[in-house]
Design goal:
15% helix; single chain; five-stranded mixed sheet; five-stranded antiparallel sheet; 2 domains; alpha+beta; globular; 38 strands; Methanol Dehydrogenase, Chain A; 563 residues; 36% strand
Length: 563
Amino acid sequence: MQLLLPPTPHLPLPPSQEVGYNVVTMFDAQPTDTARSRFWRWASLIALLVLGGGSLLALARGWIVLSYKPSREVLYAWAAFELGLLVWIIVVSPFSPRNRVKATCLFCLCKSLLWMLVYVEGYYGDGRPVFAWRFSAVAAKASPKVSHRIPDDLSPPPIDTAETHTDYPGFRGIDRSGIVSNIALETDWETHPPELLWRRPVGTGWSSFAIADNAAVTQEQQGDDEVVACYHLLTGSELWSHRDRTQFREVTGGDGPRATPTVHAGRVFSLGATGILNCLDLKNGTLLWSRNILDDAGIDNRIFGMAGSPLVVGTQVIVSPGGKNSTLVSYDTGSGNILWQGGDADASYSSPQWAPFAAGDQILIFHASGLSGHDTDTGERLWDHTWISQPQERNNVCQPIPLPGFANRPDHVFLASGYGQGCALLDVKKFGDRWSVAEVWHSRNLKAKFSSAVKVGEYVYGMDEAILTCVDLTTGERKWKRGRYGYGQLICVGDVLLIQEEQGEIVLVAADPHEFRELARMRGLHDRTWNHPAFAAPYLLVRNDREAACFRLPVLEDRRPNR
């Protein structure tokens, strides 16, 4: 007898006994969530991304400036953004407990991967970090681009050690004023574009070019060597180089030498970031003598290294190591022997400046404690003016501008710095054997952080932090403030300001106190640029910490005397 049983109804197996694999997505909501609560949970994430991510982007791009420490602001904003995302994942998100753990692990993995691919390459002039892909840096070092040629209508003559009227023999030109007179540039670059003569890779560093005849001399860091390199002005070909086994590394300011060499009477005087002062033969780079100015002064290096370019006055080469009796030190150009030492202030990052005052020639130095004037023959400190930019920074960089005979009075000096300090016009007087200095005016209208200004007529033009500004020298009144060029550098050619933007572009602006007028622009370099441009008419040399280029600028009128 067969027992017939009713069919057993099919019951689903528990999840642990199901055949196959059921994919559980990370977006499964918690069982207790309602549609409204899920909406607000996702809305909170969108708000976090928009507000937190937007604030981080604005700080990183410099659209929002809260203080003089934007690198710290970006770091804090990034940490707060990461923390906000983690809190959302762990506490607020609609994920199930298991998927919150998965999301947290995924977040940490993505963060680790990001920092493996991206690194902080350096910092912009305002302190914001410069992010770069690690693989792009490796590729750039592996395959540098070199492009140099001899122009069709120019044949490169040999190097001549005699100075000519076309020379730009040191930092900011002949007298460090940044002024190239008797030249009128063609400003219509659409019709008459500048011609690129050559472009080549160079080592790191913020040195500019010193140009004498067909030689263009600069300093750069190449691996473990600090190098004084001489290139042919017209072709970019390396003529010679001198190497010292030393290196200067600093994250904020970048690696390599800072100071621009000085060419004088067939010799090159260079000061490296670690204090090595070299005297070289311009023709072949032969070392004639060498000193370490920090060792001679018995003082440690400053945080951003030695940055003041050597000043040659007669048979003296004058530098500023800083420290007791060493604010300024003079060496004999022929032998390298110390001639005199003077002043007790620590060094900053400005260069010694010759001042042809009516009351007597002086050497000015903008040091960590302010500005002082020194006797050219003995180094004796004649006067000083206290000027400290943020006590913890003490960064005075802008080149002082001596103004003999300004405003129908004997001697004045213009100086400026950043970090909120501003600018001032000083009146320097001599009564018998005593000197005095007083502020004619003090203004915050021009805060030159680490670029230098130029005087044109009765006005001075410079970067107020990152914006080009014109100030009346007589009153300190701002005439205009326009043009965001970053923490770049500028010189004046004729009646035109030639600006090297921080992002690498080259810009012409009219030196007109009545209105701001940008006349022309072109792409010169392709990365962060703090180096000063050098102009030996009609040749413009620009460089940064990875490439250099030479352009032949169209000249409208050349009023210089014949060679």
